[in-house]
Amino acid sequence: MKKNLVVLVLALLLAGSLFCQDVNVEVEEAQLKSEMAQQKADQVIKELEQLGEKEYTVNVKVDDNGNKIVITSPGDVKMDKPFIGITYSDMTLAEASEIGYNYFYGIRIDNVVPDSPAYYYKLRTDDILMSINDDKIVKQDELGKILSFYRVEEKVILTVFRKGEVVKLDFVFGTRNKIFDINGNLVEDKTAIGTQSETVIKTKSKYYGDGTIAWMPIWYTPDLVDVNGIMESLGFEADMYSEDGLFLNGIALKSHIGKGWFIGGQYAQYFDKTTSRHDWNHGIDNLDGSSNVQREAKYWIHYGGLSFDRRFVFGKIYSELGCMFTWGMNNIEVDQKAKDDVPDYDFVTGDLDNYLDEYFNLSSSIKFRNTGFLAEPRFSLGWRITDWLSFKAEAAYLYTISMSGWEAEANGYDINLTNRPDTNMDGLTLSFGPWFGF
After folding, report:
1. 253 with 393, same domain?
2. Which of 75, 102, 303, 342 is most buried, taking the most CB atoms under 10 A from its CB?
3. 53-85 pLDDT, tens digit each
4. DSSP assignment, residue 83?
5. How far is Cα 230 from Cα 276, in angstroms, rounded to an integer?
């Protein structure tokens, strides 16, 4: 019955995950297209401003496939201004020092526009444009002013710092649609093509997270019949531990190893201690036939091991499928003491040998343990609030692969057990809690 319940719960959670996947994939793709379109529009606006354009519009359209952005510049943008075909920025002193540039003027070329005059005359990214003819370019804001003194098809000399050397380059200004060679001949005219251009955008890689750590409150439903039987035989109440389950405290961590796969570890335990009084019929000389002793029982169940999980991300929602391979233990320890009935010992005249023989068993203990190797297939569903905090619900089933069987130790010595029950650690585990990191 319990295993059927486990299968039903996991099936419902999996169905919910698949529904969330369809919805959230569609939402995420739409959001991704919108973000990429905005980023591309911002880039085009920056390039137009750096080229000296004051009036323009940029229409951004995302096609149905989501892999292409079409950028259309209007026809009223003037095309007869001198055009180089670069984007650029100022440098800091630290950046100039790093490349050995010892001049206090010049702008860095960040990008060379494809099929532009700069591309034709082989300007390069990271070149430092120092001057046009004798006009030094002190900072990026001055390039537009300098260009206003020149005309399309005019030949100039560009002074460029490239890989530690100052280079002089012949250059002829063109337009965004026309390129002229060094003799002023037209070598390319894109006017007839129009101003529409297409840029292929690669799909943004999905972010699966880096790693996370968590405190995990876990509800665990093991079979406790044998454990309660031992406790009852030792004088503790019957059905001491509820068959409905135990509340465990756990800690877990995991790290991303690539492509949505995570490796991690987890440890969880339940611990309980209880005491009772017990009339002990010991039959020891010099003492009454029985003593009222204190009996203390400790029970803990714990497990820990390595986990392997595959994460699926749907925007802020994510799910995980995985399995943990773990070692676990049931452990019962009972101590019994008759403190009040032990007589005083005379340090000078006392017979220590007889004293030990008579009273050594006034304090005794017995321990039972049952260890095993387990596997825990699991499914989880989480909500990422920020990159450092998320909440996750997890359902799993702890399945026993092998158990050593009950073993016992009395007063420090191993003892043999007969009629040992075949106790396992099978049980459903449910948890919900915060995870720090993602």
Report:
1. yes
2. 303
3. 555 555 555 555 544 545 555 444 444 688 899
4. B
5. 15
